[in-house]
Amino acid sequence: MYWDKEMECMPREKLEELKLRRIKETVFRVYAFVPSYREKMDTAGVKPQDIQTLEDIQYLPFTTKQDLRDNYPFGLFAVPMSEVVRIQSSSGTTGKPTVAGYTRRDILTWSELVARALTCAGASRHSIVQVAYGYGLFTGGLGAHYGAERIGASVIPSSGGNTQRQVMLMQDFGTTHLACTPSYALFIYDVMRSMNISPEDLKLRAGIFGAEPWTENMRSEIETKLRISAHDIYGMTELIGPGVAIDCSCKEGLHIWEDHFVPEIIDPDTGKVLPPGSEGELVITTITKEAFPLIRYRTRDLTSLNYEPCKCGRTHVRMKKVKGRSDDMIIVRGVNVFPSMVESILLRVPGVEPHYLLIVERDGTLDELEILVEVSEKVFSDEVRKLEELNKLIRKELESGLGIAVKVRLVEPGSIERSEGKAKRVVDKRNL
Ligand code: DLL
User: Contact 306/293 with Cβ under 8 angstroms?
Assistant: First the structure.
């Protein structure tokens, strides 16, 4: 099922023509209306008319989070504020938030993209969609909401939190589709079990999960526990919010809606564009946004692109499940460690729950990585010897997978803090 078959299945040649036309328009527009872009392009010696082919975009300067900070809050908007009908933002870890503005048409575009995404996850006007992403400045709640309304589904705007009530609503209202972070979906499952409700008591069929990295193993865990099809939705505040990409029923990569976003993969150290298939940092140029266009925005997210045709019939490029952000990566004794690597190793071990926390400390000059791992109730009540064996097994698996020595601490079910939004996976106690 498609939401917009003509666009989603457009032959590549036509799609490339459309992309080029839209890129050219966008570059002309930012050059004319956004002083910061004009200055950067002048410094780089590129004029809008130099962009004649899709490859030419590599001559345009990158836009980074620093540019957003320098132009906080509205300096990169390409329309007067009288045209801006919505402002969203993300908190960010340091200092000021990242701010996004939308014109009326941008809101329509965003709704269309989320409508496509929800349709990929099997939702339709007959569905009941519970939106348990936070509503407010965060783009998750309102983004999913507008998309679900666009397809004509019945939307339950439950927002994040109050988990028992989430479960009650799911049961009483017959929710068929749940939209929230993957870690919150698991938390909802735990609470559901504690209320003696099982997935068979619900009508839930699919989940639209994103806003944080999660592995294929985590997907299987969620699909088995909740008995649903779990889809991965990607997006970020700067780019529009959720709905930049989603996986179809093939689940072999997330289709990036190329009629709106032009992706590139670069080497994060050199900034060089890498050939299709290489892993690197995702860079996106938005080609339809009016209020807040972004040229070659460095997302910091690590992935790769696959231009092979997909079995679902959609022609849009697929990005691999995001491995993590380059800034989530911790370097422990010179070795790069991503929480997603730990997650995929842990979830292969029976009896381990998908809740874990990486704690890095520095003892003198030596980094220590301790991994807290939750185990199931059954395992936790096993005799000490068995727990020790399991601890040893997990440590061995992690050490061979990560290539460094780690400490493992098995902890009681439910003892690692749960999140109603994005999960926290790393505590770095080193003062780096
Ligand atoms: O998280 C937008 C969103 C809301 C996406 C709901 C999906 C669902 P930000 O708060 O600006 O926006 O965070 C963006 O979150 O750069 C990634 O690092 C991460 N992220 C988002 N979706 C995924 C995903 C929203 N599916 C940042 N897989 C991005 C991995 C994701 N990481």
Answer: no
Is CATH 2.60.410.10 the classification given to domain 81-327?
A: no
Say what the pLDDT of residue 92 is. 65
- The domain locations on the chain are 81-327, 335-428
- Helices (H), ranges, 72-181: 104-120, 139-150, 163-173
Q: What is the pTM of this model?
A: 0.95
R_g (Cα) of the chain, nearest Å: 22
CATH of domain 335-428: 3.30.300.30
Q: Which two tokens stand for residue 319?
A: 């990005």
215 ligand 1 Cβ < 6 A: no
Does residue 325's CB lie within 6 angstroms of at least one atom of ligand 1?
yes
- Residues 6 or more apart whose CB falls under 8 angstroms from that of 292 comprise 76, 77, 78, 100, 101, 102, 106, 238, 286
Report which protein residue has its CA nearest ligand 1's atom 13. 236
Q: How sure is the predictor about 328, in pLDDT bands with cuts at 50, 70 and 90?
A: confident
293 and 237 Cβ atoms separated by less than 8 Å? no
Cis amide prior to 309 (ω within 30 degrees): no
Q: Give CA–CA dist 356/426, Å, rounded.
A: 9
Whether 133 lines ligand 1, by a CB cut-off of 6 Å, is: yes
- Cα separation, 283 vs 298, in Å, equals 5
CA-91 nearest atom, ligand 1: 10
Spacing, Cα 139 to ligand 1 middle (Å): 9
Pocket test for ligand 1, best of 113, 236, 244, 286 (most atoms within 8 A of CB): 236
Helix, strand, or coil here: 101?
strand
Structure confidence at residue 93 as a pLDDT band (50, 70, 90)? low
- The pLDDT tens digits of the residues spanning 96-120 come to 899 999 999 999 999 999 999 999 9
Q: Which atom number of ligand 1 is nearest to the Cα of residue 209?
A: 8
Distance CA 248, CA 311 (A): 10
Q: How far apart are the CA of 238 and the centre of ligand 1, in A?
A: 10
Average pLDDT of span 401-416:
95
